[in-house]
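Weekly modeling sync, notes
Attendees: S.R. (lead), two postdocs, one rotation student

Agenda item 3: backlog of single-chain predictions. S.R. asked that every request posted to the team notebook include the full sequence so nobody has to chase files. The rotation student volunteered to paste the first one in as an example of the format we agreed on. Action items at the bottom.

Example entry:
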Amino acid sequence: MADQDQPQEGANVVNIQAPHLPAVPQAQVQADEPSPGTAREEIPSTSGETARAQRMKGSTDAKLALKDFPCPVYEVVPSPSGKCRRKGYGKTTKGKKIVYSKKFINYFNERTWEQTKVNITENYKLQNLSEPDFEVNPQLRKVSRFYLGEMAPKVAEYNIKSEFTVKANEQKVGKPISLDELVKQLTNKRYTRIALIGQPGCGKTTILKRLAQILLVVNELVQQAQVSHGSFSLSKKIKKMKRCFKFIHHLNIKDIPILKGTSRDEAISPCELLFGKIASRLSSQDKEEGYEWLHENQSKTILFLDGLDQATWSLLGKHNKMKYTDKSSTATSMYNLLTGNLFPRMTIVISSREHRLASLPSELRPQFITALAGLARDDIKRLFIAIMGDGGEKAWEKLTMQSPALIPLSSVPLFLIFNAIGCKNNPDTMTGIMLQILHIFMRSDHTHEKNQIENKLRKLMLMSFEGTKDRRVIFTIHDLEKVELDPNDVHDFIIKVPGKNMFNQHLMEGDHLMFFSHQILQEVLSALYISNMDSTAFRAFIETEMDYDHWAVVRHFLSGIILNPDIESSLIANLSSGARQDEKIRFVREFLTSKSSQKMKSCHRLDLFGTLYEANDTELIHSCIKEINFKFESITTVGMHAMSSVMRRCNQLDIVCLCGCSLNDELVHILTSNLKGSCLKLNELDVSFNDTLGAAGFGELGIVVSQCHVEVFSAADCYLTTEGMKAFKENTRNAKIKLLDLSMNDISRLKDEGLSTISEIVYQCQVEKLGMRRCYPNLDQLERFKASIADIGVYLYD
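Predicted structure, as returned to the notebook:
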C-alpha cells in the first residue's frame, strides 16, 4: 500500500519548504485567518497547496520578496520516460523520442535564424537610407573588474556618457577583445553565464543577433546556415571552430510572459516560459521530449536573452529553488535559470544596460562580462557613407567640414542614424539634431491632435527634469502619475516620419520600470523644460544648479536652445515658447562668460568649449576665448573635438599651448580635421614635451601651421625623428614661420639627414629664428648644419 504522503504520479504538489527558508509556524498561519464575515476561499485538503501558498494569493512576487516570502514552487512529477502517456498509447520508443526531440530542436534553430536577421535600415526606408552590404560591429572590451568599481555604477543610476561630454578621465575600461575572441568565449565551458553590457543604442541587440547567427552558421544547424557558410562574413578562426552547439535559442526578455505564481493557475514551468509559449505549432509530445533533450544535453545548448534591463519582474529578494519540471512565477524561474540552479551547463548570454547588471546579487552575476565600447572612427565613416547611399561620400565630407563635433557622437550606432537623418536638414550641432528628431515626431501622422501631443511632451519634460535632478534614468508608474500621464499615453509615443514609423521602438520602454530608449532623449527634454521656466525660476537654476556635473549634457542642449542662432525658432517654439526671451539669453551669456574667466580643471574647461560650440554665439565665443592653454594637462578625444570645434569659430587666437598633453597622431588629426576650412589665424602653437606625436602627428601639425598662418611653432623635447621632420616639411609648404623652436631634441636621432631636412624647412618657411638649445650635436654636425643655413640669414640660438 502506498504511503499517503507520497504524491501520485503526475500529481501537482507544493514544495513546502525552500532550502534556505524556515517553515512557517502554524500559529502564524492561523493569525492570517479572515475575520468573521469576510469571504474565505475553501482550501481543499487534496489541493496540494500549502497554507503559505494560500496566504500569498493575490500578491505580486515583488511584494512577497519584500516580506521575505518567496513565491511557492508547485512540484510536478513527470511521467517516467517510456511509460504510457495517454490511454491507447504504448511506450515511446527511443526512435520516436529522437524524432520528437528533433522536431523541437529544428523548430527553434530555424526560428532563431529568422529572428536574428539584422537589417539596420529596415525602419528608415522612407528616409532613403541604404542597407550596408557589410557588417560593422562596436568595439568590444572584456571587463573583468566590473563589480570592483571598474564600470558598475555605485549609487547613482544616471551616468554621463563620454561621447556627449568631456569627462575627467576617458581611460578605457577593460581589455580590448575581438569578435573572434568573444565567440571563442561562448564555446568555453568554463563560462556558462555571459553578459554584454552598454548604453542604450550602442548595438547590444544587433551584436547579440549576429552572435546567434554566427553560431548557427558555424554549427550548420539550419539549411540556410549551411548554404551561408561559404559566403557569411566570418573570420578564418571562427570558420575553423569546432561544432559544439546543437540548439540555439534567441529571446527578447520583454516578450517573456509575466506570471505571478501565487497560485497554481498563475504558475509556469521554466521550459514552458522560455520555449513552450513560443512553440504553438509543436505538439505536447514534441515539447515534452524536447524539454527532456535540453535537460540531458545542456552543454550543447546556448540561450541568448536580450534586454535584462527591460524585465518587469524582480530578481531581487528570496526565491525558492526548483526543478525544470516544476512551476512557479516568472521571477522565480528566471532566478533559478540565471543562478545556474536550472540548466547549470547551458550557456546563457544576456544583454543589459550597466545599471541593471550592477544591482544583481552575487549569485546572479555573470562570469564573463563584455562591454560595447562604440564604433571605431573608420567604421563610423564606412557605415555613415553606406547608409546614406548615393552621395554618401559628399555627405561625409560635408559632415566633417561643417559639423565635426558630431562625429564622436556617431560612435553610438543609434546616434549615427540620427546624424544621417538630420544631415539632410543641415543641423551642425547635437542640439540641432535632437530638435529635428523631436520635430519630426511632432508633425508625424501619429499626432492627429497636435495640442494634446504637445501637452504630453511637456509633461514628459517635467518628468525628465525631475529624474535628471535626482540623477535617475529609471522611472515608475508613480513618476508618470505625478505628471498626470497614463502609461498607455507614454507607450503610444512612437517617433515617426510622415507616413511611416521613424523608429520601430517606443520612446519609453517597459511597464513597471521605464526609461527612455536613449538617455539623450531624457537630457534634451530636460533642457527644453528648463528653457521654458519663468525668468525667476530660470535664473535660480542657472545660479544654483547648472554648474553641477550631472547637468553637463543638459547644459550643452540648454545653451543651444537659448543661444544658437542657426537653430530655427520653429523647432523650439512648440515645445518651449518662452525659451528665447532677452532675459534668459542674458543669463546664459553671463554664466558662460563668468565660467570662462574662472580657474578650473582641464575637463571642465574642455566641457565649456563643448557648451560654447552648441551655443554657436560668435560674439560670446570671441569674448570668452582669446587664448587656449592646457599646459601639462590631459586632453581626451572628446575634449579635442570640443576644443578644436570652438577654435574653428574663432578668427584670431594669440596662443594655443598644448605642451605636455600626451598628444598623438589621432588627437592631432582631430585638430586638423576640425580646423579644415576655418579662417582662424594663430600667432603661436606650442606642442613641446609631447614625445608620442610620431611622424604622422608632425605631418598633421604641418597642416595646422600652414593653414592657420602660425608665426611661432615650438616642438621642444618631442622626440624628433627624420621621418617626422620630412612629414612636417611636406605639409608646411609656403608657411612663413618667424620662430621655430626645436630645443631639447637629441640630434643624434636625426643624424645628418634629419638636420638637412631642418635646414630645408628653415629655407622653405623663411624662418627668422631657430631654437636648437640642448640638442647636443657633435662639433662636426654643428659646423655642417651652420654651413647649410649660412646663406639664409636665420638667427640660430643654442
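Discussion: group reviewed the output briefly. The mean pLDDT is 79.
Action items: rotation student to repeat for the remaining queue; S.R. to check formatting next week.
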